[in-house]
Design a protein that fits this description.
Its cofactor is Zn(2+). This is Dihydropyrimidinase. This protein is an alpha/beta fold. The protein folds into two domains: about 1-60 and about 395-455, Urease, subunit C, domain 1, CATH 2.30.40.10; about 60-385, Alpha-Beta Barrel (TIM Barrel), CATH 3.20.20.140. Helices cover about 30% and strands about 20% of the residues. It has helices at about 40-45, 80-90, 110-120, 140-150, 170-185, 195-205, 215-220, 220-240, 250-260, 270-275, 280-285, 305-315, 355-365, 370-385; strands spanning about 1-5, 10, 15-20, 20-25, 25-30, 50, 55-60, 60-65, 70-75, 75, 95-105, 125-135, 155-160, 185-190, 240-245, 265-270, 320, 400-405, 410, 430-435, 435-440, 445-450, 450-455. The relative contact order is 0.18. The protein binds N-(aminocarbonyl)-beta-alanine and zinc ion (3 copies).
């Protein structure tokens, strides 16, 4: 089956150009100058599916490198399954996710990966890969890393936060980084000083500061900066490439920018919540409302100017990717577990559906350029996680994961509007986007078509990933 997308502007990190796109089966086979050749008009006449993209952007499907579908966490489980979460992602123009398989201390990482494959199998509407969380660094899990790399799971996340749950001490981090350096795997880090945070949390609760706002103040930026710096030093010592997930403090980014300036293989991911939302406005919302925005790292103070600095670091390139850290919980029954004690609120925000739109708004607002939007949301995540050029680019030979994005369209985010995630609230209720995801193709199949969902559970395939490409 062939599909011909004509009249649109193809956007890549290196530029934008009016080009028609020919898809054969599940791959892109050609980009053609519009209407310039007889070949073009023949194709229009003979293609099975014709898509008019006049006045619209033709971009690679979004690659969200950080999601947690149905992850057991904080005494409950993230509310999107692989089925509901990937359907919502598709609606929002994301065609690949990389989710996290979770190893708890004592378990085998091979077994945890197998159980995540089982959860996802037959459920996904779009393609999915896995990172592996190592919750218990020991000689067995370290030995298992090379095995997972061979199976296409080429990145491993450690936690400097959550003592007693996923926490790794500095010796464990050092050993895992040595193994990552040996295998070429990417080390991902949740960089917050969890030991110090737990003391501040205990003190806040003892003082009676139990509201969601104090989740933010007890996870102080100093403890993100400190952990980020420590991770960078350990990575430098071992030679492991380091990817710091969900960076929210401007001071942590300064650490990363300095290391990158010195030539170190260190990368930063941030998320839309840290660019748009704040400690004062969201976490500090009246009564228990702020629980909707409890996540870690936390939303930062707007008065301190973190949000503007994060946008700036996207422009400088020191923020390498934008992912969602999609980890949704319903307000009723889940977030409510922490009424009277913020430390019992399950940590996470769901936004897998809205990343492409929210970041496009950054283009409209003059925060970033059009090409940078595609770069941080599609192309660089694909390269970072060993999926390029199959994913992340509209080019011959690539998977036909394509989004037709309408810059004249509008999207209102809210539970009664564009919401397909399995959450009973939206973290962006009422936000209006000056753009719209019109059509989404996953490997050549139209899965969203102007407000109609045509995808199906089981269409998505596991993406066996290569080692990360050298991005510095
Ligand atoms: O609050 C968050 N970020 N929840 C998901 C787990 C993690 O640390 O990424
Ligand atoms: Zn984390
Ligand atoms: Zn996460
Ligand atoms: Zn539209």
């Amino acid at each position: 089956m062939t599909t011909f997308i004509h009249g649109g502007t193809v956007v890549s990190p290196t530029g934008s150009q009016q080009l028609d796109v020919l898809v054969d089966g599940d791959r892109i086979v050609a980009l053609l100058e519009p209407g310039s050749t007889a070949v073009g008009s023949d194709l229009a006449a003979t293609s099975d599916v014709l898509i008019d993209a006049t006045g619209k952007y033709v971009i690679p499907g979004g690659v969200d490198g950080h999601t947690h579908m149905e992850m057991p966490f904080g005494g409950t489980s993230a509310s999107d399954t692989f089925e509901t979460g990937t359907r919502a992602a598709a609606w929002g123009g994301t065609t690949t996710i990389v989710d996290f398989a979770v190893q708890n201390p004592g378990g085998r990482i091979q077994d945890s990966l197998a159980s995540w494959h089982e959860k996802a199998s037959g459920q996904c509407a779009i393609d999915d890969g896995f990172h592996q969380i190592i919750g218990g660094v020991d000689s067995d899990s370290l030995k298992g890393m090379a095995e997972l790399v061979a199976e296409g799971v080429t990145s491993f996340k450690l936690f400097m936060a959550y003592p007693g749950v996923f926490y790794s001490d500095d010796g464990q981090i050092l050993r895992a980084m040595q193994t990552a350096a040996d295998t070429g795997a990417l080390m991902m880090m949740h960089a917050e000083n969890g030991i110090a945070i737990d003391v501040l949390v205990e003190q806040a609760i003892a003082r009676g500061d139990t509201a969601p706002y104090f989740h933010g103040t007890s996870r102080a930026w100093q403890l993100e900066e400190e952990a980020t710096h420590r991770a960078i030093m350990l990575a430098q010592l071992t030679g492991a490439p380091l990817y710091v997930v969900h960076v929210s403090a401007k001071q942590a980014l300064e650490q990363i920018a300095t290391a990158r300036g010195a030539g170190q293989n260190v990368f930063a991911e941030t998320c839309p919540q840290y660019l748009y939302l704040s400690l004062e406005e969201q976490l500090g919302a009246p009564s228990f409302e702020g629980a909707k925005w409890v996540c870690s790292t936390p939303l930062r103070s707007r008065e301190e100017g973190h949000q503007d600095e994060l946008w700036r670091y996207i422009r400088t390139g020191d923020v390498t990717t934008v992912a969602t850290d999609h980890c949704p919980f319903c307000f009723q029954g889940q977030k409510e577990m922490g009424i009277g004690d913020f430390s019992k609120i399950p940590n996470g925000i769901g936004s897998v559906e809205h990343r492409m739109d929210l970041m496009f708004q950054g283009v409209v607002d003059g925060r970033i350029g059009l090409e940078r939007w595609v770069d941080v949301c599609c192309t660089t995540p694909a390269r970072m996680f060993g999926m390029y050029p199959r994913k992340g680019i509209v080019a011959p030979g690539a998977d036909a994961d394509i989004v037709i994005y309408d810059p004249k369209g509008h999207t209102t985010i809210g539970v009664n509007d564009t919401h397909h995630m399995n959450m009973d609230y939206s973290a962006y209720e009422g936000v209006r986007i000056d753009g719209h995801v019109d059509t989404v193709l996953s490997r050549g199949t139209v899965i969203v078509d102007g407000g109609e969902y045509l995808g199906r559970a089981g269409h998505g395939r596991f993406v066996k990933r290569d080692l990360s490409q050298n991005l510095i």
